[in-house]
Design brief:
This protein is an alpha/beta fold and 505 residues long. The chain folds into 2 domains: 3-287, no CATH class; 314-491, fumarase. Helices cover 33% and strands 23% of the residues. The protein has helices at residues 6-22, 26-38, 42-61, 90-102, 151-154, 168-175, 197-207, 214-220, 225-238, 323-326, 346-357, 399-408, 422-431, 443-447, 487-504, and strands spanning 3-5, 71-79, 83-85, 114-115, 122-123, 131-137, 142-149, 158-162, 187-194, 253-261, 268-275, 281-286, 314-317, 334-343, 372-374, 413-416, 434-437, 450-457, 466-480. It has a 5-stranded mixed beta barrel. Strands 6-2-7-12 form a 4-stranded mixed β-sheet. Strands 8-11-9-10 form a 4-stranded mixed β-sheet. A hairpin with an 8-residue loop joins strand 18 and strand 19 (466-480). The protein is globular. 49% of the residues are buried.
Length: 505
Amino acid sequence: MKTIRQEDLIASVADALQFMSYFHPLDFVQAMKQAYDMEESPAAKDAIAQILVNSRMCAEGRRPVCQDTGIVDAFVEIGMDVRWQATMGVEDMINEGVRRAYLQQDNVLRGSIVSDPAGKRRNTGDNTPAVIHMRVVPGDKVSVNLAAKGGGSENKARLAMLNPNDDIVDWVVKTVPGMGAGWCPPGILGIGIGGTAEKAAILAKEALLEPVDMPTLKARGPQNRLEELRLEIYRRVNELGIGAQGLGGLTTVLDVKIRDYPTHAASLPVAIIPNCAATRHAHFTLDGSGPVLQTPPDISHWPDIKWESGPNARRVNLDTVTRDQIAQWQPGETLLLNGRLLTGRDAAHRQLQKLLDAGQPLPEGVDFTNRFIYYVGPVDPVRDEVVGPAGPTTATRMDKYTELMLAKTGLIGMIGKAERGPAAIEAIRRHGAVYLIAIGGAAYLVSKAITASRVIAFAELGMEAIRELEVRDMPVTVAVDARGNSVHQTGPAQWQQVMLKHRQA
């Protein structure tokens, strides 16, 4: 019988969460490098390059790969013969590990968890509580799998109760385009089949913890029905041409992982949960000998890729830019932003809407006239940083505010990630505005372009406060131009045809 000490579990959880915040799993890095090498779409290749450069920077600088440092999932297996030396329950120990990790001063992680989710949505401040799944199993050890799941990819989870004779592959292929690009492809699809509704979702989440092995599977061929499904879904999803960041390209998924479970004769539950470009997970097993600390990987395993904006990038002065100038920008064009921009996410937009609807002035210092807003909730800075990792959040969540902001504030441009919906695109066209994207999964790289940051309104909202940032050569791509043309529509359509030609060749 092994004795597991309270402090050993807490310390192991805290170490694993810090570790995964800045080290991508090597199998994911290698899969991304393979996608980069084969990619033919210039926009998608550029996006993958930024993600890989960001990954290496984070591994070297020990800072988060994404500003969204995730909601913590813990899958815990407790041996029946384990004896605890503890005063806390297992869930409390895990949450204490989360708290320590996210408040670690050398690498502060963003607190994204809000309590009272249907009400006031107050940030808990330390990213607790985690979502914990526990099983009691034979043995005398404690095994823990941890993941830190970003909201952009988690929000794209889908569940269906299919009929027993429905085609699973067809449902997946029809569902993925509707997930948009907010999950920051290329990534991994976790699929759960069977059980009940909640079991299918848990299976899908657990599947994402498995290593990337699609190249091996493709080389040796399938050995069972699930492997056949993996290969077929992998092929058909990539043939959609969605590509990196939804810009159109050859690789949308790096791997497809599937787990199944017996189900009712009348049922076929199927769940999809994607992992994004900030794939983060780690595992450890406690055997009573002390805490388990993760082993840092060799940085030489990261590809030595350089990212450059290219000779055709257009430099933009945000302090003097006009509507006439933005009307000249083309979908897919690379811009380098310089000057001042404002930030704001969901909570800030809700506050702004209340003021505008009531006919009240905006907070002192908040003036959107001929300015751009960046949808971002950055990580707090450490040491000599101006700001921590500061990648974009999914812009689609701000679609409901787009007409209001463009019509009533003088705003002329927005920066986020992923596509915009039809109503937002129409508002952009009608007001002659533009929507730009920064690369999701390149948060540390983006932060290096920020030279100053100050909170100017709604400080009580924490990471969702309105800030004024000063940027120097911040790389972005024109996603929706002033005429309402969207690269997230034209890019995938173009590359879907390219994929069709590849298959027919």
